[in-house]
Amino acid sequence: MADRVRVRGVTIHRPIIYGNTATVLTPAERETSHYPDHTHRWTVAVRSATSAPDSDVVGGADDLAYFIKRVTFKLHDTYPNPTRNIDKPPFEVSETGWGEFEIQIRITFVAESGEKAITLYHHLKLHPWSVTFPLPNATSVPAEPEIPSPENAAKLGPVHSWQYDEIVFADPFQNFLALLTAHPPTPLPKTSLSKKPVPFHMSNPASLEASLKGGVPEFTSAMEKEEADRLEEAKGKIIKEQEKWRSILMEKEKELEKLQKLLAPKE
Amino acid sequence: MAVSASDIRSALSLPSSSTPVPSAQPAPRKSQGQVTKKPEGISRELYALIGPSAPSLVAHLAKPRLKQKPNLSSGGKVKWEWRTFRNGARTDSLQLGHWAKATDDQNAEYPFTKYNVQSPSFAYSQDEYTQLLEDKDWTNEETDYLFSVVREYDTRWYVVHDRYEYLNGPARSLEELKDRYYSVCRKLIRNRPWAGDEASKAQLLNSYQFDKDRERMRKDYIASLEQRTPEEIAEEEALFIELKRLEQNERKFKKERDDLLRTLLGIDSGLPDIVAEEDGPSALSAEGFKKKKKNANEIDIPPTPSNIISLGPPPPKRAQSAKSVAYDAQHCIIRVEPPPSAITKVTHVPVHLRSFKLPAPKAAILPKVTQALTELGINHTRMVMPTRENCARLESLIEASTALIDTKKIVDRVEQDIRVLRVRLGRQSEGPGEDTKEGTPMEVEGGADGEGELKPEVDGRAQSIVSTRSGRGRKQSRRSISVSSIDTSASARVGKRQKRV
């Protein structure tokens, strides 16, 4: 029973990625498939953030089964058995389809954790990325991204959409903590040793070019640092603005005081 | 040696007589013969003695030469010329002259410019004053006066204290002035958004530490130390020596007692194993005691603001060893101090994804913050790599943006007040009064201009126009005080509207 005591003041987290890859079906595949209107084959997965060396999938260096009991992927209702339960690794679902939709991912943890399941959402991405959000100085709203034709899409290669996140456990039970520490996560590499492309993210549109290098993307701690630099730079700019406005404020206060003094004797 | 006539003749270059000629001739030949074999490095006689035997010659020549004197005077003459120069640190473009080497770079900066270091001075707005800096002993004006004096005399406290003359105010001691100044600075540092990490902020904060009571006590102690009579000094020294002797005795006694116990009881004496004891107070105490002493020593050194080497607060709990830090990093463990109130049980925070708990700005200003951040290319709803550090950075970024937007709101409010006052001033005067066309809100001299233009021109129609204009202007200004765009060209737009009217 001593195991079921919570270790206060300790927070432990595990980095994961979740997302999907999608490839265009070749005309030959489409002819022989049961669903001729399906255009893409895609795989949605929950894996560890670090990629295994010489692997052709994103992430997955560590086996997450030591703390994840089951992952449930809820697909679109038009799929047969849309609720796909995956009870053992690899926690992924592969299907064919023609449309993008939101997949609900529910992660259930092992019993030792004493935690409820968590739900995340992932928008299934089939068509290649393009940056379409309005730029700060744009006057017109840019058009919707064009969906390339199957031949062009096949040329562009598989589409990846992945999100890094960390599952945070606060005040874990003693035995759960021991279980977690028995499986330390492989840390993210500083940069991709095999020169894999950077995974694209909408919050960092500048990464679009780097992500199109070709090949399976890999998560690195350089990405984290890049974001940190961006945030710091933005903060620096804001603080400069803030100082400028503060000095304006002080000038105006002086002016106000002067005017008030003028007004006072007259009244 | 015998000097022959031929020698004298040759010395004096006299023409030789006929008889001594044959003897003169062999003499120069002999000397010539000797001259051709001129030895180097050794004297002629020595060479004649040694003969041309190589080893001894070489050995002789290989004698190390004495170190030559270093050529200090740069080998040649140095030309100096009189040059005029400007000190970059001066604001008044005074030209002075000095001697400089001709070879020195003509346009090199005056080397003493870099010593004109200014200490960072703080300026606060009225709003900040009312929010943070109110104090019962200090009025706003007196605080402003203090800051202006400090700035003028460059934080040299003795001068500041001497020149500080606030009319109708209480007499302020040096410690009071310093206390007020440093507490204001500390509050400002703490509450303003800070570019850079927490560690540098803590460092800066520390440099502004000032404890008034401790300072006063310290100065009193020093003064009393100065004023001790010689008898007191002698008494103190005697006491000190006695204390040392007592300590030594105690140490010896304890050691003997321990030795005795050990010999009597052996392993069971319960004493710690014999360690190589060094002579010093540390040998006496256990480790905990040592740490306590060290901590006490650290606290005793009063942290004065001039103390550039910041000591930092002594750690309340022992810092983690390097190994445990690495262990935590490997397992992605973060340790947080559990809240001291153990009475109320902390409800367990359930498991979550870190991006679920992303910091979000307050709902009231959410659209403005979002817009501001979008201009900078940041999306605060979705992060690429939501790690703990990045989330903390995002949070401070949002804080900074919030502060910026608040400041802009206050600027607009003050703006409006100024306009209202100007209008009232204008209406009070007989004539058209102030010119609302000129004096864009950005000008500082706006107030002065308004005053200058209070011409008592009486023009009934003009007056009514002015009043309607200002009336409408006021309504317009009220309407336009919505901080819609981050550019805050709202004020400029209002100005334009008034012009059109």
UniProtKB/TrEMBL annotation, chain A:
Q: What does the UniProt keyword field contain?
A: Activator, Chromatin regulator, Coiled coil, Cytoplasm, DNA damage, DNA repair, Nucleus, Transcription, Transcription regulation
Query: Cellular component per GO?
Result: cytoplasm; Swr1 complex
**Compartments (UniProt record):** Nucleus; Cytoplasm
Q: What Gene Ontology biological process does one annotation of this record name?
A: regulation of DNA-templated transcription
Domain of life from the UniProt record: Eukaryota
One Pfam annotation reads YEATS
Annotated ranges, domain YEATS = 6-183
Q: Which family does it belong to?
A: Belongs to the YAF9 family.
Per the record, what about its domains? The coiled-coil domain is required for assembly into the NuA4 complex.
Q: How does it assemble?
A: Component of the SWR1 chromatin-remodeling complex and of the NuA4 histone acetyltransferase complex.
Q: Sum up the protein's function in the record's words.
A: Component of the SWR1 complex which mediates the ATP-dependent exchange of histone H2A for an H2A variant leading to transcriptional regulation of selected genes by chromatin remodeling. Component of the NuA4 histone acetyltransferase complex which is involved in transcriptional activation of selected genes principally by acetylation of nucleosomal histones H4 and H2A. The NuA4 complex is also involved in DNA repair. Yaf9 may also be required for viability in conditions in which the structural integrity of the spindle is compromised.
Q: Which PANTHER family match?
A: YEATS DOMAIN
- This chain belongs to the protein called Protein AF-9 homolog
Automatic annotation (TrEMBL), chain B:
* Region spans: Disordered: 1-38, 296-320, 426-501
Transmembrane domains' residue ranges: none
Q: So what family is this one in?
A: Belongs to the SWC4 family.
- Which keywords label this protein? Chromatin regulator, Coiled coil, Nucleus, Transcription, Transcription regulation
The protein's job, in short, is: Component of the SWR1 complex which mediates the ATP-dependent exchange of histone H2A for the H2A variant HZT1 leading to transcriptional regulation of selected genes by chromatin remodeling. Component of the NuA4 histone acetyltransferase complex which is involved in transcriptional activation of selected genes principally by acetylation of nucleosomal histone H4 and H2A. The NuA4 complex is also involved in DNA repair.
Q: What is this protein called?
A: SWR1-complex protein 4
Localization annotation: Nucleus
Where does this protein have compositionally biased stretches of type Low complexity?
10-24, 479-493
